[in-house]
């Protein structure tokens, strides 16, 4: 009996050593909506896409309005001449060796006909603007997807910590029970030793889960523009499983409004307009220009003399060493690439939707299965614990039931967040929230 108590004492010391663990610092908590809002304002891809939209808007203004307006230029010059022979200054009646002159000018020119190039350039600029806006929308949804995935990764890691903590508590309770049974002689020393090993395994799993929390919270903090760690706030909406969506309708909608498809098709339209603009080089151009100059000098008491001219010019390039043909061929190649890219974007969306629909349905089924498994494993562990208390079950039965419950709880967490991630992927593909 003394030996048994000594063993129990040593086991108790081990229990205290295993139970002592440092408390992690509490990280600030953020909701999914706030995380998305903050990420949309700092994501480099969105900032870049917004700058591209601003540039495209400027190009539209230049191509659609500026190309039809004249160029106006004002100029002025002043000159002072020195001569070795004296001259008569008419304003003063004296001889002078210096002469000062001034010249003022105003000129303007406008294109009257550019071989339909301006219209093609305008259409290309508008198509580029449409592509830039679609790319901005796509960048926003990709940023939403990224921060949502990081948010769910942090939340899943936090949930797994709670699961592992529950496993540690169960292992501690089992160890305390085995020690009590050892003291009264109704259990063997092996039961306590196995319980110690089980508690150590549970603690290692908790340490690993805590490391995952730090990693995922740090990634989330970076996405929302914060240093350190940010914790994800849980929400009851994350536990709701929606009915299976109409996949056919979502496919049609995705191909019609997906930001990726819209951007690719807009690039195709821009390439088509660019080809038409290049073919305009075969047509003549007609331009009108005019200028007015006022000039005067000190010899004439700065009486300004006005000279004006108007010029109408026609230019028709007959041959420019195949430069037009080279430009057209280059833009035709770009058009072919844009068309192939647009078709591939549609195929990519269709394939991605197929994958994510399957993942969404699989996760939904797994949620149902794992919830039932958790309920069954919880009840099984309760029954086995009661049987162990009265000596009708072995410590191996208890440890097996504990492991089954821990596995079921982890599977339930993974299934729930796989469902949420698949849903977020579909939302990014169709360009709206489900």
Q: Provide the CATH superfamily.
A: Outer membrane efflux proteins (OEP)
By CATH, the architecture is named Up-down Bundle
- Order of strands in the sheet with the most strands? 2-3-5-6
> What is the beta-strand fraction?
15-25%
Shape: elongated
The main β sheet shows up as:
4 strands, antiparallel
Outline the structure in words.
- This protein has about 425 residues and is an alpha+beta fold.
- It has one domain (about 1-70, about 115-280, about 320-430): Outer membrane efflux proteins (OEP) (Up-down Bundle), CATH 1.20.1600.
- Helix content is about 65%, strand content about 15%.
- The chain has a 4-stranded antiparallel β-sheet with strand order 2-3-5-6, with no helix packed on it. A two-stranded parallel sheet has the order 1-4.
- A hairpin with a 4-residue loop joins strand 2 and strand 3 (about 95-115).
- Residues about 1-10 and about 10-25 have low confidence and may be disordered.
């Amino acid at each position: 009996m003394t030996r048994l108590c000594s063993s129990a004492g040593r086991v108790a010391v081990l229990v205290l050593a295993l139970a002592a663990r440092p408390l992690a610092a509490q990280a600030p908590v953020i909701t999914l909506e706030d995380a998305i809002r903050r990420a949309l304002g700092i994501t480099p891809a969105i900032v870049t896409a917004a700058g591209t939209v601003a540039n495209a808007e400027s190009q539209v203004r230049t191509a659609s309005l500026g190309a039809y307006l004249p160029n106006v230029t004002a100029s002025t010059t002043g000159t002072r001449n020195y001569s070795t022979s004296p001259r008569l200054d008419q304003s003063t009646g004296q001889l002078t060796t210096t002469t000062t002159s001034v010249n003022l000018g105003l000129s303007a020119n406008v294109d009257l006909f550019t071989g339909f190039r301006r219209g093609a350039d305008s259409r290309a600029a508008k198509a580029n603007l449409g592509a830039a806006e679609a790319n901005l929308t796509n960048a926003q949804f990709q940023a939403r997807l990224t921060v949502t995935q990081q948010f769910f990764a942090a939340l899943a890691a936090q949930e797994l910590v709670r699961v592992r903590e529950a496993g540690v508590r169960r292992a501690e309770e089992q160890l305390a029970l085995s020690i009590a049974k050892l003291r009264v002689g109704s259990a063997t020393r092996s039961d306590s030793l196995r319980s110690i090993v089980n508690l150590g395994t549970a603690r290692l799993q908790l340490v690993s889960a805590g490391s995952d929390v730090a990693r995922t919270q740090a990634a989330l903090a970076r996405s929302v523009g914060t240093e350190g760690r940010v914790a994800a706030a849980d929400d009851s909406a994350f536990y709701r499983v929606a009915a299976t969506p109409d996949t056919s309708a979502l496919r049609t909608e995705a191909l019609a409004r997906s930001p990726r498809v819209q951007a690719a098709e807009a690039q195709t339209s821009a390439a088509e307009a660019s080809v038409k603009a290049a073919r305009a080089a075969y047509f003549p151009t007609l331009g009108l220009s005019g200028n007015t100059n006022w000039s005067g000098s000190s010899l004439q008491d700065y009486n300004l003399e006005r000279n004006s001219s108007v010029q109408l010019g026609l230019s028709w390039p007959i041959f420019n060493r195949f430069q037009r043909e080279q430009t057209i061929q280059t833009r035709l190649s770009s058009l072919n690439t844009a068309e192939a890219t647009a078709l591939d974007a549609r195929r990519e969306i269709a394939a991605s939707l197929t994958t994510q629909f399957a993942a969404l349905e699989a996760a939904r089924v797994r949620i149902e299965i794992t919830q039932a498994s958790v309920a069954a494993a919880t009840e099984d562990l309760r029954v086995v614990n009661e049987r162990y208390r009265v000596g009708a079950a072995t410590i191996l039965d208890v440890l097996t039931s504990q492991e089954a419950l821990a596995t079921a709880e982890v599977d339930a967490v993974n299934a729930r967040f796989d469902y949420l991630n698949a849903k977020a992927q579909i939302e990014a593909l169709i360009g709206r929230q489900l």
